[in-house]
Amino acid sequence: MQDDILSVLYSEAEIKTAVARLGKAIKQDYQGKNPLLIGILKGAIVFMTDLIRSVDDFVEIDFMDVSSYGDAAVSSGEVKILKDLDTSVAGRDIIIVEDIVDSGRTLDYLIKLFQTRAANSVKICALLDKPEGRQTEVTADYIGLRVPNEFVVGYGLDYAEKYRNLPYIGILKPEVYED
Ligand code: 5GP
Ligand code: MG
Ligand code: MG
């Protein structure tokens, strides 16, 4: 285990099972629909690459980069588009692929944005849900795993751009970000 990790919340095998379940659900719900999966950079990339291979049906992908956190462990509440889509969402069935729903502000913003851009439907697929962090009404349609109100890293999630490549989801030692 990496030195900065206090404990492992979800192992590689547990994540794999959760992602397979989500892929299967999406395959069933979107038969014949060719949904556009929009991965939110950078946290969702590891999840996204595993998820699309587990869907086992036609999907298209695109990416968007938004910021609400910077390098801080506490949300600023502000959402900014750093990279927009290459694809038009008008008339498309959108699935937003997120690493984690915490306050819900990022997703609240994105759902409204894609509705304004005339998407046919907008759903959310989040690997992790942190219900205690919620500051909005947002709930994900597809949820992989629930996490407690702790700062987690790994499987795409970072702290100050580190730990994204850990194959598991772990809780970071508080002293790492309190320094
Ligand atoms: P929101 O508060 O808008 O729901 O979450 C915004 C973003 O904050 C998430 O997409 C994720 O990138 C980041 N975030 C929220 N909670 C955590 C966490 O526990 N660990 C990490 N690494 N990022 C988090
Ligand atoms: Mg994110
Ligand atoms: Mg981050």
Automatic annotation (TrEMBL):
User: What Gene3D superfamilies does the record point to?
Assistant: 3.40.50.2020
| InterPro entries xref list | HGPRT, Hxn_phspho_trans, PRTase-like, PRTase_dom
Q: Where does this protein act, in terms of pathway?
A: Purine metabolism; IMP biosynthesis via salvage pathway; IMP from hypoxanthine: step 1/1; Purine metabolism; GMP biosynthesis via salvage pathway; GMP from guanine: step 1/1
Q: What is its EC number?
A: 2.4.2.8
Domain Phosphoribosyltransferase residues, every copy? 13-159
Catalyzed reactions: IMP + diphosphate = hypoxanthine + 5-phospho-alpha-D-ribose 1-diphosphate; GMP + diphosphate = guanine + 5-phospho-alpha-D-ribose 1-diphosphate
**Would I find Transmembrane helix among this entry's keywords?**
no
Assigned keywords, A-Z? Cytoplasm, Glycosyltransferase, Magnesium, Metal-binding, Nucleotide-binding, Purine salvage, Transferase
Where, per UniProt, does this protein localize? Cytoplasm
UniProt keyword Protein biosynthesis, yes or no: no
GO terms, molecular function: glycosyltransferase activity
What Pfam families does the entry give?
A: Pribosyltran
For activity, the cofactor(s) needed are: Mg(2+)
Cited CDD domains:
PRTases_typeI
- Top-level taxonomic group: Bacteria
User: What does the similarity note say?
Assistant: Belongs to the purine/pyrimidine phosphoribosyltransferase family.
Q: What does this protein do?
A: Purine salvage pathway enzyme that catalyzes the transfer of the ribosyl-5-phosphate group from 5-phospho-alpha-D-ribose 1-diphosphate (PRPP) to the N9 position of the 6-oxopurines hypoxanthine and guanine to form the corresponding ribonucleotides IMP (inosine 5'-monophosphate) and GMP (guanosine 5'-monophosphate), with the release of PPi.
Name of this chain's protein: Hypoxanthine phosphoribosyltransferase
Lineage per the UniProt record: Bacteria, Bacillati, Bacillota, Bacilli, Lactobacillales
